[in-house]
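Example 9 (inverse folding). The structure is encoded as follows.
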């Protein structure tokens, strides 16, 4: 079986930290080392059939990129290249970082931007996550009452992070690796 690829964008490093936690929990027989999207190529990413992608939300509910202050670029620069491809046959699970207290009206919004681009390109996005346990006003990332991927608030709820990752992985890995 091919390994699960883990790709992330970040500014201050939390989304990388989470990617590393996920990789460690999965083990190196199951997942490849996490890679920053500003240091990879489409070819590398497309070698995987099952992929976990992570992003923080910046600006006004935006994906990270040069415009939000990530000087080497991030999802804003990478995503348009990816979304031009036909991603049918790829299974992708998403996780997003946000701050529900400070940005309650656009909590983890950018998760939806990833979801939208990937589903439009034909990928099957798996790994929705319940909204219980979070307090926010609005999030684009909620679809049919659930987040379109795992949402983590490592600023205000760091103590819940590990347990959230564990339960999400338990559900998502069988979906990602199913034939
Ligand atoms: C300038 C700025 C803007 C932000 N905007 C949002 C936002 O719109 N929505 C949200 O949920 N979180 C927002 N955040 C919180 C970050 O997404 C959160 O701190 C995240 O953990 C950062 O991840 P990183 O360390 O991987 O860059 C913002 C943070 C900063 C510093």
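The amino acid assigned to each position is listed next.
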């Amino acid at each position: 079986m091919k390994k699960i690829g883990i790709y992330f964008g970040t500014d201050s490093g939390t989304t990388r930290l989470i990617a590393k936690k996920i990789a460690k929990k999965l083990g190196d027989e199951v997942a490849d080392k996490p890679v920053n999207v500003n240091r990879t190529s489409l070819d590398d990413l497309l070698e995987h059939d099952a992929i976990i992608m992570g992003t923080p939300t910046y600006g006004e509910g935006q994906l990270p990129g040069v415009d939000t202050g990530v000087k080497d670029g991030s999802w804003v620069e990478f995503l348009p290249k990816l979304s031009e491809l036909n991603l049918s046959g790829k299974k992708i699970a998403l996780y997003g970082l946000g701050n529900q207290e400070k940005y309650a009206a656009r909590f983890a919004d950018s998760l939806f931007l990833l979801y939208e681009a990937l589903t439009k390109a034909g990928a099957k996005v798996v790994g929705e996550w319940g909204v219980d346990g979070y307090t926010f006003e609005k999030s684009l990332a909620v679809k049919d009452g659930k987040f379109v991927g795992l949402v983590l608030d490592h600023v205000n709820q760091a103590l819940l992070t590990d347990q959230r990752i564990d339960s999400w992985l338990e559900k998502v890995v069988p979906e990602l690796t199913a034939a």
